[in-house]
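Backbone Fold Data
Goal — fold tokens
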Amino acid sequence: MSPSPTADDAALGQDRAHTARVHNYLLGGMDHYLVDRAAGEAVRAAFPSIALTTLAGQTYAHRVTRHLIQKGVRQFIEAGVGLPVKPFLHETAQTAAPGTRVLYIDTDWLSLAYADISLTGDDGGFSDCLEADVSDPESLLATVKQHGGIDLGRPVALFLHAVLDLIPDEQDPHELVERLLDGLAPGSYLSLTHSAADLAPDAWDAAADAYQQHGIRIHPRPREQVVRFFDGLELLHPQLTTAHRWRPGTDRPAGPVTDQQVPLYAGVGRRP
């Protein structure tokens, strides 16, 4: 039987699971607590291919980074950085194009502390972390502008990977994305991943229930709701698809994988 949470546990965030740490656990990382492992195992029991789905999102992030580098993008903002595992986004970007600038954003203090230690530096480019909230777009954009590491007057790639699933309908996530994009220069890109409710409804319902039992709310959405995030943008080929099917290369999963095993939408749009 696990000991009851203490005040010290609460101060360190060890009294409850957190999506960033559960995500890290499912990716095979080391930055998680007992409560996060318990949540991860509960979700895995409900949705057996959840780790494969999480990995598909991770590999997509690096694949799209390399693709956008080829298109000339040299500035990236990753919102909801969480607790990633190696290789980190800025390492992929700066290996492809030294001098690329990467800004990580989150609201969770533990994720920011991790980012400050692990994700910052100037080896081959710029990377830094910043506290800001996607649910307050104007404040986020103002904070980025004040920071000065990213020039919002030039094109930037905004990554919202496994972020919009955490925003309930009552907060109008589509409007939040629209307001974020309004603050970006023409020629900027939006990349997102989002749980695909219509590809594996039973699995996502079970996963959502398991997450909720551990204090985490997720909001899987069907294709017609996810594609709306790209309203007004030019969707890049192959448009909105599953993460493992978006321009797969040498990082494709070993063996055949179905969309029902990896029900995670992914896509990239360009602001005209």
Notes: The chain has a mean pLDDT of 90.
